[in-house]
């Protein structure tokens, strides 16, 4: 799997949880629009890619 395919999978996972995030933020009184999603998704994608790389590195060093 290449980076683009992995990023698409990560995006699908993130989008699945957007309604939950929206509810959590709105319950705290924070307005949340579709325009707000992009910066949050970028941050989340960076986190997910770093976590993936750590897991990959851990898997190769423990073989």
Number of strands: 0
Shape designation: elongated
Question: β content, as a range?
Answer: under 5%
Low-confidence stretches: none
- Could you tell me the mean pLDDT? 89
Helix content: over 70%
Terminal CA distance = 20 Å
- N-to-C SSE string, H for helix and E for strand: HH
Largest sheet: none
Radius of gyration over all CA atoms, rounded: 15 Å
Please count the helical segments: 2
Alpha-beta content class = mainly alpha
Explain what the structure shows:
- This protein has helices at 3-27, 34-61.
- It has two helices and no strands.
- It is mainly alpha-helical.
- The mean pLDDT is 89.
- Helix 1 (3-27) crosses helix 2.
Secondary structure layout plus pairing:
Layout: H1 3-27, H2 34-61
